[in-house]
Each structure stands twice: as structure tokens, then as C-alpha cells.
């Protein structure tokens, strides 16, 4: 059967973009020179270990020196820990897991309470999806250790979804300070952790709403001409940037599109095989992948910051977006969601 889309990856053999802290899949295949699966896995293992070692040496225990508040609880660190968690599992790398645990232990005390930085407890009233992303690392440490303090911390974070404000259609606001706005970023910040928690602790009732959050974005944020999703949607159509007819932000921002692609490919594995919305999420991932393939830059195999305006003045080829697409496409293919 012919593939629905083709993506060039020769120029993206392995991608680590420090700016957005995405540790992407290690891809070393091309349509012209296919390698055996064992050769790819062997090379990926070596490259992944080298990447992880660099991170461990440069940023001990997740204290990222380029942060405004080094060592603080933040989605940037959480995303980095997702990559290190994946490395620990894929390569059976105990040092990578030790790194994740050491970072989490700086935030979670012996009683399971979370401090966002020394002397600053987790802010439950901020109601921001960004602050829930590091919950994935907390959950990963619990799954490995079964220490109840991590379960307590993860449960507190999971409880935040019950109090998050929502638009009238039921989607989460991205933050308390962004009323009636859904951002593609929020799909990644919230739903992979939420789905992982629901899987681990058998909160099966939440899967319906998890699917709803992701599909609302696809329904309301997709551009009818390009098939790509816009970065933001103001359901109230009151923001200065919002289109008065659709409520959408003006541009298709590649990094936001990448957040959404990763959200899908990281959330679907937690869904029960028989869940009625699982197939629709996979179909949505395929649409997203088709859009990414369509707008990949032919010369460099990367992606432009404003996806559908490649080559225009002030537009640039964007490294973090290219990492997110490489990761989402490679994982989607590996898990059989994509052709």
C-alpha cells in the first residue's frame, strides 16, 4: 500500500534542540537508503546515550542554566525530562532515570508536596496548563519506584483539571489569565500527563474529556485552506489578535503545530484499545502529519517558523519545530498510527 505522505529525514538524523528542550526521536533512515531496523536501533541507542550524557553533565539534576529561574518547576524542564524518561526506557539507561528522579526529588518532598522553587509551593490558583506538564516526570518516577509520595504529588496535579476554567464548548482555558482561549501548546502541557495518570490509576471516565480537548482544537483551529491548525483560538472573539469571524490567531506557528502533533502521539498510547474516540484521534494525527509533510522545506528537510509562508522575509527555518515534527512522525510510524 502506498504511503499517504512522504517526509524526508536525511537531514535530521538526530535532533536535540536545546532552546525548547525537545529530545527528539533518533531517526537515521531515508527513502533512498533504507537501513535495517536493528542497525537503526543500534545507532539510535548510541546517539541517545551520548545526548543523555551531555544533558547530565551540562545540567545536573535538571538545573538548566539558560532558564530565568534555574531549577524551577517549569514545562521546559518537564519536556526535557520526557526525553530523558524515554531514553531510560528505550535504552534501559539507569543514569537517565536517575537524572529524572533527582530532578523530581528537588521539587517533591517526603510528604508528596510540590515546591515550584525553594520556598514557593505549587500555585494551585494559577490554573495554567503549562504548570501541569512536569507531572509526566512525577508519574514516571512513581511508575518505576511505586513510592506513594509521587502518587500523592501526581494526584494533586491531576486534580487541577477539575478546577481549570473552560470555554462554553468545554475546552480548557490555556491559563487563568488568558480567558476563553485555547492554545495548541496546552494540548501537550495537559493531556499526555492526564491520560498517563488515567491509565496508571484507572480513571477511565476521564478519557472521554481528554479526547474532547484534543478534538475541539482540531475542529475549531484548523484552517480550511491549508489544513493546518492556528496557534490560538479565542472562543469569545474579543482578543485584539482574534479573527472576528473565527476567533483564530493570524498565523500557523510551527512550534505550536508541533506541540499538538506531539500531544497526539504521546496521548494516544494511554488510551484503551476499545475506546470509541481512539480511532478518531489517530485519524487526526494522520491529518496533522499530512500537513507537516506538505509544508516541509524541500531544500533542508526542516520546517519554517510560520509554516505556510516559507521563504518570506523575516521567516526562518525553525529548529525546535523541526525537532517536534521529527519526534511525532517517527513515533507515530513506530507505533503504527502513521503509514
Question: What is this structure's SSE topology?
Answer:
Elements: E1 14-17, E2 22-26, H1 37-58, H2 75-90, H3 94-107, E3 115-117, E4 120-121, H4 135-145, H5 148-163, E5 181-183, H6 184-200, H7 207-221, E6 232-234, H8 254-267, H9 278-294, H10 319-334
Antiparallel strand pairs: 1-2, 3-4, 5-6
Helix pairs in contact: 2-3, 2-4, 4-5, 4-6, 6-7, 6-8, 7-9, 8-9, 8-10
Quaternary status? single chain
Number of domains: 1
The strand count comes to 6
Low-pLDDT windows of residues = 1-6, 9-34
Shape: globular
Structural class: mainly alpha
H/E order of the elements?
EEHHHEEHHEHHEHHH
Number of helices: 10
Q: What CATH first level would be assigned?
A: Mainly Alpha
Named CATH architecture: Alpha/alpha barrel
Description:
- The longest helix is centred in the first third of the chain and has 22 residues, at 37-58.
- A hairpin with a 4-residue loop joins strand 1 and strand 2 (22-26).
- The protein contains ten helices and six strands, in the order ββαααββααβααβααα.
- The protein starts with 13 loop residues before the first strand and ends in a 5-residue tail after the last helix.
- Helix content is 47%, strand content 6%.
- With 339 residues, it is mostly helical.
- Helix 6 (184-200) packs antiparallel against helix 7 (207-221).
- The strands form three sheets. It has a two-stranded antiparallel ribbon with strand order 1-2. The protein has a two-stranded antiparallel sheet with strand order 3-4. A two-stranded antiparallel ribbon has the order 5-6.
- It has a single domain (14-334), classed as Glycosyltransferase, CATH 1.50.10.10.
- The model is unreliable at 1-6 and 9-34 (pLDDT under 50).
- It has helices at 37-58, 75-90, 94-107, 135-145, 148-163, 184-200, 207-221, 254-267, 278-294, 319-334; strands spanning 14-17, 22-26, 115-117, 120-121, 181-183, 232-234.
Amino acid at each position: 500500500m502506498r504511503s499517504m505522505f512522504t517526509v524526508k529525514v536525511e537531514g535530521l538524523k538526530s535532533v536535540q534542540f536545546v532552546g525548547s528542550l525537545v529530545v527528539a526521536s533518533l531517526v537515521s533512515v531515508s527513502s533512498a537508503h533504507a537501513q535495517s531496523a536493528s542497525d537503526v536501533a543500534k545507532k539510535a541507542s548510541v546517539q541517545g546515550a551520548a545526548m543523555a550524557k551531555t544533558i547530565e553533565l551540562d545540567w545536573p539534576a535538571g538545573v538548566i542554566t539558560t532558564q530565568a529561574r534555574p531549577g524551577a518547576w517549569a514545562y521546559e524542564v518537564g519536556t526535557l525530562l520526557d526525553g530523558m524518561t524515554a531514553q531510560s526506557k528505550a535504552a534501559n539507561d539507569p543514569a537517565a532515570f536517575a537524572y529524572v528522579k533527582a530532578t523530581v526529588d528537588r521539587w517533591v518532598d517526603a510528604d508528596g508536596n510540590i515546591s515550584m522553587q525553594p520556598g514557593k509551593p505549587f500555585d494551585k490558583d494559577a490554573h495554567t496548563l503549562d504548570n501541569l506538564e512536569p507531572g509526566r516526570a512525577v508519574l514516571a518516577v512513581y511508575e518505576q519506584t511505586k513510592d506513594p509520595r509521587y502518587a500523592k504529588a501526581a494526584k494533586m496535579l491531576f486534580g487541577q483539571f477539575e478546577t481549570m476554567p473552560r470555554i462554553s464548548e468545554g475546552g480548557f482555558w490555556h491559563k487563568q489569565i488568558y480567558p476563553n482561549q485555547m492554545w495548541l501548546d496546552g494540548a501537550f502541557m495537559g493531556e499526555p500527563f492526564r491520560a498517563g495518570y488515567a491509565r496508571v490509576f484507572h480513571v477511565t471516565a476521564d478519557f472521554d474529556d481528554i479526547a474532547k480537548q484534543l478534538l475541539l482544537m482540531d475542529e475549531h483551529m484548523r484552517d480550511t485552506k491549508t489544513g493546518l491548525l492556528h496557534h490560538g483560538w479565542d472562543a469569545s472573539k474579543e482578543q485584539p489578535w482574534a479573527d472576528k469571524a473565527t476567533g483564530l490567531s493570524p498565523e500557523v506557528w510551527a512550534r505550536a503545530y508541533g506541540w499538538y502533533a506531539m500531544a497526539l502521539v504521546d496521548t494516544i498510547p494511554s488510551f484503551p484499545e476499545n475506546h470509541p474516540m481512539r480511532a478518531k484521534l489517530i485519524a487526526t494525527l494522520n491529518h496533522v502529519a499530512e500537513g507537516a509533510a506538505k509544508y516541509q522545506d524541500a531544500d533542508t528537510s526542516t520546517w519554517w517558523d510560520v509554516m505556510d509562508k516559507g521563504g518570506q522575509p523575516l521567516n526562518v527555518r525553525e529548529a525546535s519545530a523541526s525537532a517536534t515534527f521529527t519526534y511525532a512522525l517517527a513515533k507515530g510510524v513506530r507505533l503504527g498510527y502513521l503509514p
